[in-house]
# Entry
Amino acid sequence: MSHRRSWNDTRALVTGASSGLGRAIAEHLVHLGATVVLTGRSAAKLDAVAHELLQSGASPERIITVAADLTVDKDRQRLFDEIANRLGALDLVVNNAGVGATGQFDTHDPWVLRRVFEINFFAMAEVCRAAQPLLSEGTAPVMVVMGSVNARRGLPGRAEYSASKFAVSGFVESIRIEWRRFGIHVLQVNPGFSDTPFDDNAVAKTARVSVSEWRTMPADAVARATLRAVARRKREITLTTRGRLLVFMNRLAPRFVDWGLSRWLLRHFPDAPSLHRKKPASQAS
# Structure
C-alpha cells in the first residue's frame, strides 16, 4: 500500500468520514499509522466509526472526530481551529463530502440545484481555502478532491449532480497550478460506479431503479486506489471499468453515448414520459 510514501505519522483530514468512501479511506489511514481527523455532520455516526476503529486495535491518539456541517462558516472555522490546535499542520486532506440528486431537472424545485451546489462545490471549495495554510506547513502535502465520472460525462436524471462535479473539476484544474507555489499536490479522484450508500443521502430521488445497480467497486477498493494515487502523485484517476469506458466512449462517439443514455433514462426514471418532441395538433394523425 505504501508505494513510495510512508503513512506513519501522516496528519490527515477526511470529510464525509461517517460513511461510504470517506469512512473507508479514514479507516485505511488509521490502520496505516496516520493520525486522522474524521468529520461529518453526525456526531453519533462519527463516534460509531471511532468505536469500531478502537475495537479493531487502532490507537486512540490516532483518531480525532469533529462533527461539523461544512456548509456553515462557523462549523468550518471550528473544525480548522481544532486541527491547528491539535496537529499544527496537515499532510493530507481528502475532500470527500458530497450529496446526490436524481430525477428530471425540470421537475425539481430550484432548492435542489442550490443544495447540491452548496455541498458539492461551495463547501468543497471553502474546505480547500481553509486547509491550504495548514497543508502549506505539512510534509509532501496532498489535497484529494472527490470528483465523479459525472465530471467528465453528464448523466440524464442527474443534471444537478453532474453540473456540480463539472464545476469541481474546473476548480481542481485551476488550484492544481496555483498551489504549486505552496508545494501542494492536488489529485482528483473520479470513483465511477462504486458500492456506497451515496443514493441514500440524495436530496431528491425519483429513479425507478437505484443507480446502485451499476455499482461494481467496493468502497474499500476505492479507498485503496485513492491512497495508491496519492502515493504515486497522480493528477487524476477514474475508477471502475464502466466508468473509464463511459468517459472513453464519450470522447470517441458522444452521439452514440447520448443515444444509449436516452434509452437508460426511459427505463429508470418514471418522470421521463418521452424523449421525443410532441407533434403539433395540426400534424397529429
Summary: Residues 11-268 form a domain with the Rossmann fold fold (CATH 3.40.50.720). The beta strands are 11-15, 35-40, 63-67, 92-95, 142-146, 185-190, 194-195, 217-218, 236-238. Residues 110-136 form the longest helix (27 residues). The mean pLDDT is 85.
